[in-house]
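Re: your question from the hallway

Yes, I did run it. Sequences:
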Amino acid sequence: MSKGVLVDVTRCMGCKSCQVACKSWNDLPANVPDVPEFSDGLNSPAETNGYTYTTVAIRTVAREDDYVLRFCKRQCMHCLEPACVSACFARALQRDPQTGAVVYNQNMCVGCRYCMLACPFNIPKFQWDKTFPIIGKCQFCFDPNGKLNRIGQGLAPACVRTCPTSALQFGEREALLKEARERIKKNPAYIKHIYGEKEIGGTAWLYISDTPLEIFGFRQDLGTRPLPEYTASYLKFTPYVAVGWTILLTALYLYTKRREAVEEEKKSAQG
Amino acid sequence: MKGPVTAEKEWLPEDWRGEIGELTGKKWRFRMTPARVVLLALGAISVLITVYRLFAGHEAVSNLNDHWPWGLWIGFNVLAGVALAGGGYSTALLANVLHVRKFSVVARSALLVSLLSYLFVMFSLFLDIGKWYNFWRPFVFWGYHSVLFEVFWCISLYLVVQLLEFGEIATERVLTGWHALFKKAMPVLLIAGVMLPTLHQQSLGGLYIIAVGKLYPLWWSMLIPVFFLISSFFVGPAMVTLVSTLAGRAYRWTVPTEVLQKLIRVSGVLMLVYLGLLVYDLSSRGVWGLVFKGNLEGNMFILEVLWMLIIPLVICWTPALFNQRKWLVVFGALVGSGVVLNRMNVVFTGMAGYLGGHYFPSLMEWALTIGFIAITALVYMFVAENFRIHAREEEIAPEVAEVEKGVVA
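Structure:
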């Protein structure tokens, strides 16, 4: 059974302490670039980048006769069947089956950025300013051989540990799903959907909200089929094409060569 | 090992024939002209940018960003570069595997263009990747579930195969003692040299399968590998026509019109297949509405289909045009640039709506691409002037040469 985090948008007050905790636990620089970037006045930075694994998006939402603020933490969703892992041709991205963390190993990485193209949530980011850049993405505080390990020893990730309103809850994914269903059932304000339960085969991070998640940039067109299956359904033909085509080409080569020789023999016999 | 057949060396001047003198041989020809000086300068600039890029990082050189992880170098240099190199394997299949001897005249030139294109692609890839000292890793650590893994392996192996195939040409002049061995290996090399591109030409399209929901539905399809494969094959004759026209002027090398016509007809048939498949694909996915929506994507798609398929097909199947050599060149230019447009549409037009942000290649990105093309052209000229690349008239079968005279007259 793998781990997960339940994000309850209704409980988040946008304090960004998760963002700070992430930076400090992972030894990430505070501001890259040097000048902080804001969008909509409050979001900073507007998106994750090579040095920022998580951001809290802040949106103003119009209600019947009022405006309300809604906040949502974004980071790697830690898919159960991650597109990035399937796309990595150097095995630099792996999913740990025990915890469910999708982890990037910078020593294996070539820097091709195909993971960035593959990820349906646009999570992997690149350190464009470095001579030897690495991909920046949330590691779920999983670092079994290093000093950043938390969930590998049963601790909650740094962001969850620091959340003062329990908008973030860490636990077994199955248990969190149960919890999410209960909350949705009890309170009619929730939208009746757990984002991440079934999307592209499921993600470790689950979201429930009283506001449509589109406003935070969550794709609604993902479907339930895991993305690696698309690729696999195509790649499975490769061995057959390779072997079959080689045999066919060899046969054609020999046949046409023989035909040519026969024709030449005929010609010389006539001549 | 048996010595090389002397008849094969007879075209070489006396003083080139010594085995040791071959490499150090003073007689390497490379005539400098003003145009070549310009190409050399452009090439030199791109070499400087390459070094700067490798040691200063990406941001110092390119405009790539987190929204646009792939830009001009992957889109044009790699995706379009590999497609345009399709002339190599398509000609090899026709001339040397299926033994359609008519096409042998262009086989060497096509191989050289293809080989140089792949070198161009490999250098571009190397300087685009972030941790370039790690480039070898996928050879050892197999991420076999990635389409990129297939692309990487096939392109690398194919480059080796092409270098060995070129060895057969090179050993006519240098290290002639090895020539017989290369000749013996040719059948194996030829078959591998058709099989490998068949795999990676399609898997280059297959890279985008995982971008489902990202790539605009006019281009995203489970059939995109097939489209990439067919177009890389039918662009081959187009490139052969263009190169033989350019090289023909420079080197008084006349490829018979009949040969080009036959090649282009092969293209024409495959383009019809492509068009049929495209119609089927758009219908089965129910996205015809998007074609005529009038937005950027729809219009670019229409432009691409007209440019790459419809107009060339009209030329191909209209006898009045098909019998004129200049229209064959127009066909080559349209299909060649049309396939580039198709790849650009996949990488840029089709992704722009989803990716957002901004990307336009920086001056240095352009300069590098242009400089690499200049170097490729220079190397082609050098090799063509020092090795037997362009078959001479007397080597063309007499009956073909006669037909040619008739057509020209």
